[in-house]
Design goal:
It comes from Aquipluma nitroreducens. One of its GO terms (molecular function) is ATP binding. This protein has a 15-stranded mixed sheet that branches. The chain contains 10 helices and 15 strands. The protein has 2 domains: about 130 residues, Rossmann fold (3-Layer(aba) Sandwich); about 170 residues, Tumour Suppressor Smad4. α3 crosses α4 and α7 crosses α8. The radius of gyration is 19 Å and the shape is globular. The longest helix is centred in the middle third of the chain and has 14 residues. About 30% of the residues lie in helices and about 35% in strands. Adenosine-5'-triphosphate (ATP) binds next to α1 and α4. The site of adenosine-5'-triphosphate has 24 residues, from α1 and α4.
């Protein structure tokens, strides 16, 4: 007998996303889904990382279609639920997104509009693409852990900015300007670190400012950090920024938004499947804006592993 829940949607809403926008807009989001004839069950996350468990529970119940109403962190948790459960293959799950977050960087590559009515329209059209998913293996408190990401991971300076951004969000700060504030304050505190990066066997051992690894193109609330990333080509775009001073960063600030900063002589880009990053010093990591611990990371890619609803008209395949 066919599982009736394969046709129904499981909606996971993060009330905390967008510094409380999820809670404020819950009724409006649900109204729009109902008006568009979605059959759904709702779960509201109650604490950080709760979406991972909500996702696993929904899949165990038989749901195969998920809608995440939240930001990049919420999507990241849903992806981590999908890839850590054992009730079905991750390929059997479809994920749609209603953007409620602050940065909402994943949607920018996939052409999802930042308005509820338009986002629900895209969900209704139901156009699917299979995107790549990244996995990071790292150590935390001497334990080896895995986590997955759907958009971008960053190491070094990127991770410090993510940590500062999350601190500002937890103080209730809202809006895109908080990314610039986090960037500004990180610039004064960050030290370039001697780092070993191995990209598909090619070794780099230098003073490195940051490494970003993109499936999607955007990070940090609209910065095009991986302009050459293509979400379904089975390859990450790896962007490495070598030692750079404050002036160099300030000169490249607008290029960070347009993607043109990759032309700077201190920046190198690669298309790769396997990356390892290590340092004798602490270099932090972040995955889809969520901070990870310690100083040694292995990153690999699962090609076309997750079905996501996207907007073919606005999808940013090429820069
Ligand atoms: N009920 C809750 N109370 C507190 N935090 C929560 C709750 N539910 C989820 N979270 C946490 O909220 C955090 C932020 O969510 P999310 O990233 O979706 O929004 P955002 O930070 O505003 O958007 P973006 O990441 O796109 O900038 C996540 O780290 C998640 O663990």
């Amino acid at each position: 007998m066919e599982n009736p829940l394969t046709k129904k949607w499981f909606v996971i809403l993060n009330p905390h996303a967008g510094s409380g926008r999820g809670k404020k807009d819950q009724a409006e989001i649900l109204k729009r889904l109902t008006k568009a004839d979605f059959q759904y069950e709702l779960a509201v996350s109650e604490f950080p990382k709760h979406i991972i468990q909500l996702t696993i529970d929904a899949i165990e119940k038989g749901y195969r279609n998920l809608i995440v109403a939240g930001g990049d962190g919420s999507l990241n948790e849903a992806v981590n639920g999908i890839f850590s459960q054992t009730f079905c293959l991750p390929e059997e799950i479809t994920v749609g997104m209603i953007p409620v977050g602050t940065g909402n960087d994943w949607i920018k590559t996939f052409g999802i509009p930042n308005y509820y009515s338009e986002a629900v329209k895209i969900l209704n059209q139901g156009e699917i693409m299979r995107q790549d998913i990244g996995r990071i293996t790292f150590s935390e408190n001497d334990l080896t852990k895995n986590c997955y990401f759907a958009n971008m991971a960053g190491f070094g300076f990127d991770a410090m900015v993510a940590t500062k951004t999350n601190q500002l969000k937890s103080k209730g700060r809202n809006g895109i300007s908080l990314y610039l504030q986090a960037l500004g304050s990180s610039l004064f505190n960050y030290r370039t670190t001697k780092t070993q990066v191995v990209i598909d066997g090619q070794k780099i051992d230098e003073l490195i400012f940051s490494v970003s690894i993109g499936i999607g193109k955007y990070n940090g609330g609209g910065m095009m950090q991986a302009p050459g990333a293509i979400p379904d080509n089975g390859l990450f775009q790896v962007t490495i920024i070598r030692k750079i001073g404050l002036l160099g960063i300030l000169r490249n600030l607008s290029g960070l938004y347009s993607g043109k900063y990759v032309n700077d002589y201190r920046v190198s880009t690669f298309q790769a499947k396997n990356i390892s990053i290590s340092s004798a010093h602490n270099i932090a990591g972040e995955a889809d804006g969520e901070t990870l611990g310690d100083n040694k990371f292995e990153i690999d890619i699962f090609s076309q592993k997750l079905a996501v609803i996207y907007n073919p008209q606005k999808y940013l395949k090429e820069k």
